[in-house]
Write a structure and sequence with these properties.
This protein is an alpha+beta fold. Helices cover 18% and strands 31% of the residues. The strands form four sheets. Strands 11-7-6-5-12 form a five-stranded antiparallel β-sheet, with helices on one face. A hairpin with a 6-residue loop joins β3 and β4. The protein is rod-shaped. 23% of the residues are buried.
Amino acid sequence: MVHNTEGELYQFLYLDPETGQEEPVNPFETGLFQEVEALEPELLEIRSKRGADAKGYYRGDKFVVTRGSKFAGSTSPKCPKKHVKLREHLLLEGLVVPLGRQLLVMQDIEFESPMAAMGAAIGGWVRGPHDWKKVTRD
């Protein structure tokens, strides 16, 4: 049996208790299984004094910064060159655009790690991924 979202499945049979006949059935139609909607990822955020206000989430071993996030418009003097180059690349590709004293993220951007995402967002030195905090829902 092949299901449009679940892929290839085993064949399920219904056994009629009166006749002993087996009949193939679709487990999703009979209520044996319930389709589960995709869970929303846990949203994290980072903010900095220089203007970063970004949200993101883990996707496997990558980290995704969401569209509409804002990066600091400038970099600190001690910002590692790899973060400066990454920010330049994002600007040249049009993934972030200047917006006042910030950079606006135009689409979800996948980073190799939460530290790379944070370095790009704050434009400065990064200590670790622990600075991404859970978003508190109001």
